[in-house]
Amino acid sequence: MLVAVTDHAEERYRQRVRGTLDARGEIVARVSRAWAAGSVSRDPARRGTADVRDGQLIFVCREDRPRGELVVVTLWEEGEEPVTPRRFTDALRRR
Protein backbone atom coordinates (compact mmCIF):
# COMPACT_ATOMS: atom_id res chain seq x y z
CA MET A 1 0.00 0.00 0.00
CA LEU A 2 1.39 3.37 -1.05
CA VAL A 3 0.75 6.01 1.64
CA ALA A 4 0.68 9.78 0.99
CA VAL A 5 0.11 12.57 3.54
CA THR A 6 -1.63 15.93 3.07
CA ASP A 7 -0.21 19.16 4.49
CA HIS A 8 -3.22 19.37 6.83
CA ALA A 9 -2.54 15.91 8.30
CA GLU A 10 1.12 16.79 8.77
CA GLU A 11 0.22 19.98 10.68
CA ARG A 12 -2.28 18.14 12.90
CA TYR A 13 0.37 15.52 13.66
CA ARG A 14 2.91 18.19 14.65
CA GLN A 15 0.32 19.64 17.07
CA ARG A 16 -0.02 16.28 18.79
CA VAL A 17 3.45 14.74 18.62
CA ARG A 18 6.05 17.10 20.00
CA GLY A 19 9.65 17.03 18.82
CA THR A 20 9.13 15.27 15.52
CA LEU A 21 11.67 16.04 12.82
CA ASP A 22 10.03 14.22 9.91
CA ALA A 23 6.27 14.30 10.47
CA ARG A 24 5.40 12.89 7.03
CA GLY A 25 7.82 10.01 7.41
CA GLU A 26 6.48 9.18 10.86
CA ILE A 27 2.87 9.30 9.66
CA VAL A 28 3.65 7.02 6.71
CA ALA A 29 5.43 4.55 9.02
CA ARG A 30 2.67 4.55 11.64
CA VAL A 31 -0.15 4.22 9.12
CA SER A 32 1.68 1.47 7.22
CA ARG A 33 2.29 -0.56 10.40
CA ALA A 34 -1.29 -0.12 11.63
CA TRP A 35 -2.66 -1.01 8.19
CA ALA A 36 -0.55 -4.18 8.06
CA ALA A 37 -1.73 -5.09 11.58
CA GLY A 38 -5.37 -4.73 10.49
CA SER A 39 -6.20 -1.71 12.66
CA VAL A 40 -8.55 -0.37 10.00
CA SER A 41 -12.25 0.42 10.15
CA ARG A 42 -14.53 1.45 7.31
CA ASP A 43 -17.92 3.12 7.55
CA PRO A 44 -20.16 2.34 4.55
CA ALA A 45 -21.74 5.80 4.90
CA ARG A 46 -18.34 7.38 4.23
CA ARG A 47 -17.53 5.63 0.98
CA GLY A 48 -13.84 5.48 0.11
CA THR A 49 -12.76 6.48 3.62
CA ALA A 50 -10.82 4.32 6.05
CA ASP A 51 -9.91 5.10 9.66
CA VAL A 52 -6.51 3.71 10.63
CA ARG A 53 -5.88 3.50 14.38
CA ASP A 54 -2.40 3.67 15.92
CA GLY A 55 -2.67 3.96 19.69
CA GLN A 56 -4.75 7.04 20.53
CA LEU A 57 -4.31 8.55 17.07
CA ILE A 58 -6.87 7.88 14.38
CA PHE A 59 -5.76 8.70 10.85
CA VAL A 60 -8.60 9.49 8.44
CA CYS A 61 -7.63 8.28 4.98
CA ARG A 62 -9.04 8.24 1.46
CA GLU A 63 -8.52 4.85 -0.08
CA ASP A 64 -8.04 4.04 -3.76
CA ARG A 65 -8.24 0.25 -3.78
CA PRO A 66 -7.59 -0.36 -7.49
CA ARG A 67 -4.34 1.62 -7.34
CA GLY A 68 -3.35 0.45 -3.86
CA GLU A 69 -3.04 4.02 -2.58
CA LEU A 70 -3.97 5.57 0.75
CA VAL A 71 -3.99 9.34 1.36
CA VAL A 72 -3.92 10.48 4.99
CA VAL A 73 -6.27 13.48 5.02
CA THR A 74 -6.44 14.35 8.72
CA LEU A 75 -6.20 12.79 12.15
CA TRP A 76 -7.62 13.12 15.59
CA GLU A 77 -6.86 11.90 19.04
CA GLU A 78 -8.99 9.79 21.35
CA GLY A 79 -8.84 9.46 25.09
CA GLU A 80 -9.30 11.47 28.23
CA GLU A 81 -5.96 13.30 28.07
CA PRO A 82 -5.42 14.51 24.49
CA VAL A 83 -2.31 16.54 23.76
CA THR A 84 -4.38 19.29 22.14
CA PRO A 85 -7.23 20.22 24.53
CA ARG A 86 -10.75 19.83 23.18
CA ARG A 87 -11.53 23.52 23.71
CA PHE A 88 -9.20 24.31 20.78
CA THR A 89 -10.59 21.70 18.41
CA ASP A 90 -14.20 22.45 19.45
CA ALA A 91 -13.63 26.16 18.71
CA LEU A 92 -12.80 25.23 15.13
CA ARG A 93 -16.17 23.49 14.72
CA ARG A 94 -18.10 26.60 15.79
CA ARG A 95 -16.61 28.59 12.94
Care to describe what's here?
The chain has 95 residues and is an alpha+beta fold. The protein has a single domain, classed as YaeB-like fold (2-Layer Sandwich), CATH 3.30.2310.20. The protein is built from three helices and five strands; from the N terminus they run E-H-H-E-E-E-E-H. It has helices spanning 7-16, 23-37, 86-94; strands spanning 2-5, 40-42, 49-54, 57-64, 69-77. Strand 2 (40-42) and strand 3 form a beta hairpin. The longest helix has 15 residues, at 23-37. The termini are far apart. The model has no long low-confidence stretch (mean pLDDT 85).
Rg, rounded, reads 13 Å
Q: List low-confidence stretches.
A: none
The CATH topology comes to YaeB-like fold
Spatial ordering of strands, largest sheet: 1-5-4-3-2
Which helices and strands occur, and which strands form pairs?
Blueprint: E1 2-5, H1 7-16, H2 23-37, E2 40-42, E3 49-54, E4 57-64, E5 69-77, H3 86-94
Parallel strand pairs: 1-5
Antiparallel strand pairs: 2-3, 3-4, 4-5
